């Protein structure tokens, strides 16, 4: 019979170190021996060190029946153990083999039963003691609230139970970089709490084994590996030791531990949602072994953590989540008719996801609050998002990974983006959070290559890394709250759009109603006011023709003068009607207009009229407004002419022009910010009951003989103000004077609609 060892002698290189076959090393640690038994109960694998426990060589055991070597009674006990229930399988089998007491663990590797035997602990702790310690731990565990507090308690409890010099709770991030999340150690040891370790310290195949086999023990890092031998009856014959207790460790890992000064280790896997969440890593600075009872108690400590992760993380996030929920409730409770300016200014819009800034883009207009990019940058970001595969929802705490061009000049690092449909968008922002990470050695030098091959790093001095270009991580409850409100805002924008359409149709209806009224007035004036001077002309010319032979030169001159006056009145009336009908809604052509320049130009053109009346005109600094220059000139001219026309004969005409220095909200008149300009004169005034009527077309408060005019002037002013989205009011006191007040919206998109 031919016998050979199955030691894996493949050389580990930089290209294959992450694929080192650590599950089939072909050797074990020497504090026990291993047998591989076939289904027929023949010994097919045996470690060389069996001779250290019995007067028996591995060559003598291989190929033999198990009962032949160890006796039928031992075989029967093991068969019964294998067929036992799961509770019994949690403990090793205590058995006598060839006169010596052992504890053996059994697992199946393919078709082979793997028996791992260690000498029975003579002074091992009793199960009752471990049970008592566990009960005490559970009692203390219930007093902790946060996950960090629980892990600190587990680290302390595990060290008390096992007696290791250092116990760490090691937590992985998404890339499997590790952090010492909690720790308990001897007072003379340098603490590792808070240190980070690169993912290369625990390669993928090692993480896979930690999931399969949740307890890993190294009794002495200076051990000499013991080879496993087998009957050489098949090419490539091997033995998978993934579930083995005695499996020999990767030489790179052993060297890593030696570089740290560690003598023995115990590692317990923390599995959460079928993923390796972390490890309980126990270090001792000399060789150390522990009994099965203590191993089980330590393993239970790990299960306490994994059973509590969801609960404790939820508890840790509960307070912040409650604040987010409250902000969301307050935000959704706002009046659905609120404007986007009001919505974006609400502090709850930032609080729902603990953002530093927010922007809403609707109808090609940006509304923003807090720390945000500039408007061009916001449009650039939306354009980049639209060009990517992102459709509706996107979040990141490191925008440079996704949109590096945008991130180059931006003051934000994290965003939550939601499309609101109809080319509308909402984006929450967070700034860069520069953080410092303390690594246990340079993570870029975790594997070192020299002329002797690969080695783990031998320096574990703290290596500081400054992390930039990323914000704090968006929590799931923050992302969910943002998504909920984005849905609400989408519905709100639809409601606002419907309200605007309703307002638009209502305004159009009012305009149509007013236009019909104007047409009726124009029809009336054409049949009355225009016919009256025309009849005068006809009468005068008819009389002149009938008396052509006897009429005197003086009479002809007087008659022609009367004809000229009537014709002039008709001409002025027709010109005013033409001006009035030509004014249309010109909102699309509004521009920034300096009213100071408009006033100066108007006064120069009216210089002669002002001089004739000896009028005094005083003006403060006027604002810039969104309007149309020539209409503003016509507006100012009409208002000043009106004041001069209705001047009091008892005093010198005086007109004072004042304005609001800054935009204001006239809460009793309008909902939006506006500028006001006031023309105050000391003329004849009017009774306050006519403050609305004087703006109606062809309305006169005085007869034609007293004051000439078509009755169109102030109606023309009102129509001009409507054309630029503004409004006009009049205030009068009979015998004291008149105030004409103009209101201009600050935003060219707004229309001043009375509250």
From TrEMBL:
Q: Which InterPro entries does UniProt cross-reference here? A: GAF, GAF-like_dom_sf, HATPase_C_sf, HATPase_dom, His_kinase_dom, HisK_dim/P_sf, PAS-like_dom_sf, PAS_2
GO terms (molecular function) for this protein are: ATP binding
Q: Name the Pfam families for this protein.
A: GAF (PF01590), HATPase_c (PF02518), PAS_2 (PF08446), PHY (PF00360)
> EC number(s) in its UniProt entry?
2.7.13.3
- Catalysed reaction equations from the record: ATP + protein L-histidine = ADP + protein N-phospho-L-histidine
The record ties this protein, via SUPFAM superfamilies, to: ATPase domain of HSP90 chaperone/DNA topoisomerase II/histidine kinase, GAF domain-like, Homodimeric domain of signal transducing histidine kinase, PYP-like sensor domain (PAS domain)
Q: Where is the Histidine kinase domain?
A: 525-748
What is the organism field in this record?
Answer: Flavobacterium humidisoli
Protein family (similarity comment): In the N-terminal section; belongs to the phytochrome family.
This protein's record includes keyword Nucleus: no
- SMART domains this protein is in? GAF, HATPase_c
All copies of domain Phytochrome chromophore attachment site, residue ranges: 146-303
Instruction: Name the chain's protein.
Output: histidine kinase
Q: Which UniProt keywords apply?
A: ATP-binding, Chromophore, Kinase, Nucleotide-binding, Phosphoprotein, Photoreceptor protein, Receptor, Sensory transduction, Transferase
